[in-house]
Amino acid sequence: MITLGLIGLIGGLIAGISPCILPVLPIIFMSSGAIAGAGERDRRTPYLVVAGLAVSFSAFTLLGTVLLSALNLPDSVIRWTGLVLLVLLGIGMIVPAVEGVLERPFARLSTGSGGSRRGFVLGLTLGAVYVPCAGPVLAAITVAGATGKIGRDTVVLTIAFAVGTSIPLLGFALAGHRIAERIATFRHHQRAVRTTAGIVVIGLAVALTFNLTDVIQRAVPDYTAALDKAAATGTKVREALGDTQSESLAACSQSPSSVLQNCGPAPKITGISGWLNTPGDRPLTAADLAGKVVLVDFWAYSCINCQRAIPHVEAWARQYASAGLVVVGVHTPEYAFEHDRGNVEAGARRLGITYPVALDNGYATWNSFGNDSWPAEYLIDGTGTVRHVAIGEGDYTGTEKLIRQLLTARTGATSLPGSTDVPDTTPQYQESQETYLDSQRGQFYGGATSLTNGTRTFSFPRTIGDNQFVLKGLWTVADEYLRAGTGARLAMSFLATKVYLDVGGTGTVTAHVDGKAQTFHVSGAPDIYTVVDLAQPAQGVVVLDVSPGLQVYSFTFG
Asked: Which of 124, 373, 415, 514 is the most exposed place for a label (fewest CB within 10 A)?
């Protein structure tokens, strides 16, 4: 518990000095003078501003997702509510009558001055829009909150994080308070100061609404990245953050070997919401796997890397079933649409998967293995020990060799069915990276118009950088996809032989590359379409005309 508290405290301190807090620093700094009324000077005000921020941020991070899910509300409700309240608070600083109305619900929160009460309210509001850089500690808290697994450890971690992030913010608030006290003419300019502060608060709300603060954050080097990385290392840290991957399994994951290893006991396949390709879709039991060589393959049906790997996995499942191999495909969704059982069933049929598939919609098995990649394979011997871990594509011959060794050791047989012969289509050059088309992970976006949630018109820039995408026409930006509107076009600069587009809905996509055009008809759940197919790797740009209503999720390359 002490270790957990220290980790949370350190993670919070790092977040409290990260570039992501820069947009709220002006308000934190001037909080005392900004919210004080005529003749008021309450030394508790800076503490209450920071306390309100810490309380609301912690509550929203832990309980926000669970509450919104229960009420069937979108995830953005909390942020938009905070922005509206921030504007109202700014107006209240300018117009006292409005401030009086806003204060009434919080009148009992403080027996002190109105300034201290306003400070706590301002802090509560800032907590709804304050988003520190997501280091490993905050990520652990967020996942716990999103999955509803909020226990004592998570609460301790959250409180410690809140305290840690509050310390540097409190330093700024106290500094601003002292400066305000030393301004001899402060009382004579109270109204002007409060009006200016109100304008600043409203300006922050507008900047956050249109994500203009991102410009500041991008312009400042991420000077806390190394600290975040250091905070996430070490076995004790991983265990405290809920990473259940054992030290030996982690070592095998990080250091692949061409020979069998002892990677520790196999984690459990747990928390599965459903099964495919089993008799009556019943779960596989421990008895079904006892004494067998088991290959656990993590995949997602719209992952192109998985699609290239699955023919090998399917071939092994068919070739060695009689010799005692059991393949379990653990489908852990990457996108919201991959939670749908019907979509997964259709994807499995398209890929020709016949082995059992476990639907890991709650990420329980993913977390049990401490996995972080699609695809990922864990080879388990007849005693239940993990003997090999393969992350990503490639080296199928090496994995099959180890499968054969374990099967031979299991049965003592001197002969096995012949090796499989499936072409390895893993790209042998450094093709463009997987490119997400959304507001959350669209790091390769190269346009001038902000890629934030909402509907707006985009324009192509004069040039497009290598491995970047840009937009033109009307698009609706969401957390996981872009929805095409009138005149929607999408351009992607790539280095690859093949370019794949993950797209869903009903309509058409016309791909223009090297002066040629090809139209694809899209219908139904999101799936992958090959929009570029060259004879050899090349640097190029593909421009897509996307009909209104279609949702595009990502580009992948081969």
From this structure: 415
